[in-house]
Amino acid sequence: MAAIQSSRIIVLHLTKYGDSSLVVHAIDSACGRCSYMLRGAGRSKRVTMGTLHNLAILDIVSVANPKSSMAYLKEYEPALPLTSLRSDMDKNAIAMFISELLYRTIVAQNNDERLFSWLCEAIARLDAVGATASGPAAQPNATGETIAAGPAGKNIANFHLWFLAGFCTVMGFGPTREGLFDGCDLLHADNLALLRQLTAAEFTEAMAIPLTGARRRDFCEQMIRYISYHLGINLNLRSLDVLHELYQ
Question: Which of 18, 21, 230, 248 has CA atoms 20 to 30 A from the CA of 166?
Answer without folding.
Answer: 248
